[in-house]
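Duplicate of #3305? Posting structure anyway:
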């Protein structure tokens, strides 16, 4: 499971000794690109708050620990979901055919005037959806949006034992600094351009279309199941009447 603590969840920090860079690229990384093929990723808003809560509550204790950086119980998760600011931040999700949220990312924009062009990335992937590269895909999608919103520095705060999250950061060309049990990575994003804006628009359009198709399919099968139950009830009633 991956981890990042959003800006508004961070606890007051005490001064820490200078950390040693884990990796320092000699040149800026290539612009993150949302892949045209693969799983659709859509932005999610307040209407999905219940699905967000269900996704996070389904995480096992160790996964919650890696995601939030502490042993988050159900109350902590409900408080986190209630505090989500959909007007300020951006959330992205991957849904299965049952419209269950199986992976999500939180892109939290800085409220500090001194870091106005900064954002922080956090991600979680359900147990049944692991091993498919969803964490990396969500990072690419979030980085694309951050870039188009004028963000030039994207942070990832993770426990040092969270190798999956740190791997995503390294693949993005991040500079990683470790301080004991915690690590912080930052990725410099290039300015937005025509390609990045069009790519994001197309990605969101495809994802919304996919979501609506899944919603229609779910409704169809729900109605079909109801009709089958009614028919079976009629058959049972006829059998009882004949007997």
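Output from current build:
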């Amino acid at each position: 499971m991956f981890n990042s603590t959003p800006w508004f969840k961070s606890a007051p920090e005490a001064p820490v000794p200078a950390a040693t860079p884990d990796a320092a690229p000699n040149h800026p990384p290539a612009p993150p690109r949302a892949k045209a093929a693969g799983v659709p990723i859509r932005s999610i808003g307040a209407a999905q708050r219940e699905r967000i809560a269900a996704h996070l509550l389904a995480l096992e204790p160790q996964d919650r620990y890696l995601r939030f950086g502490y042993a988050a119980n159900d109350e902590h998760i409900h408080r986190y979901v209630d505090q989500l600011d959909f007007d300020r931040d951006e959330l992205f999700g991957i849904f299965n055919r049952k419209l269950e949220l199986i992976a999500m990312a939180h892109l939290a924009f800085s409220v500090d005037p001194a870091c106005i062009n900064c954002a922080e990335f956090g991600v979680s992937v359900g147990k049944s959806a692991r091993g498919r590269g969803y964490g990396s895909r969500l990072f690419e999608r979030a980085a694309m949006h951050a870039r188009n919103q004028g963000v030039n520095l994207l942070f990832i705060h993770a426990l040092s034992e969270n190798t999956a999250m740190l791997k995503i950061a390294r693949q993005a060309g991040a500079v990683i600094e470790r301080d004991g049990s915690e690590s912080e990575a930052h990725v410099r994003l290039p300015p937005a351009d025509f390609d990045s804006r069009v790519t994001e628009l197309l990605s969101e359009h495809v994802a919304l279309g996919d979501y609506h198709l899944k919603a229609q399919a779910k409704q169809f099968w729900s109605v079909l199941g109801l009709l089958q139950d009614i028919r079976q009830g009629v058959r049972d009633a006829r059998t009882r009447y004949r007997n």
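Confirmed duplicate; merging threads. The chain has a mean pLDDT of 81. The longest strand covers residues 101-109.
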